[in-house]
Amino acid sequence: MLQKLSRVLNLFTPDRAELSVRDIARPFKWPKSTAYRILSRIQQIGFLDRDERTGLYRLGIRLAIYGELARHSTSLQRIVSPVLHRLSAATSETATLMLLNGQEGVTVDVVESFQPLMLPGLLGGRMPLHATAGGKALLAWAHPSRHEALLRPPFERFTQTTITDPAELMRELDKSRKRGYTIVNGEHVENVVGVGVPIHDHQGGVPAALTVAGPRHRATGKLEMMAAAAMSAAASVSATLGYNAHTTGDGALDGAAARRSPVRRAPGTPRRSTIASAAPRPRARPPR
Predict the structure, then answer these.
(1) pLDDT band at 102 (very low <50, low <70, confident <90, very high)
(2) Where are the alpha helices (H) located in 162-254, listed in sequence order?
(3) What is the CATH number of the domain that holds 19?
């Protein structure tokens, strides 16, 4: 039953918040009677609600309660939550925390700007790595050996500015590592620009990214200020997690530190990934 529960709940997304019995039964090739029986049991325990007028199912309020509890009980989110509030206040824009989930980013905490431009569906939303500031940060500071698994073209185009060419994306990620932050230019949501910065853990890995973004007309002129604020916020979180610039791990180092440190390959991984080979590799300085 737990496996069926998980499979049903995974069908719901921000774009498909309500589903019919047929929508749920079709992917699993269940007879309608079987689907009704399973959905009825899930509804009884409060994980699904059914609209009596339309007959459509949606995620139950009980899940929202559990989600809120998990949000405040997770150590990383507990640490980041006050930082996000300060970051949003300092920049007057929306700040988020993104985690890596498979080949997508998942926004697990959001502090909205008090100014106009609300982005509904951010919290819990699944975001493409190649077209978002947080996703780019997770990619840019991931170990090169992971690029092939994380980046599998063709890349979906969301707007006219979405980067879909693998070589161009790798060049963009290289620039991001050198300056210490990523930039998104309306690549996922039209006219929304922002920056992303990696969060490092005590092993040097990059479990999450901070982002701050706003409308193009308001945020473009203060991108450098937003980036400086985001980098300071991320550095504070990383330090709390036990990270220091000399830690070696899955993630690359920030900015100038990354340029001073040669990238190490994981044992048994190819020297260059399929996608990474499309772009020129920066020459590492010999160790001193």
Answers:
(1) confident
(2) 166-179, 216-219, 223-240
(3) 1.10.10.10
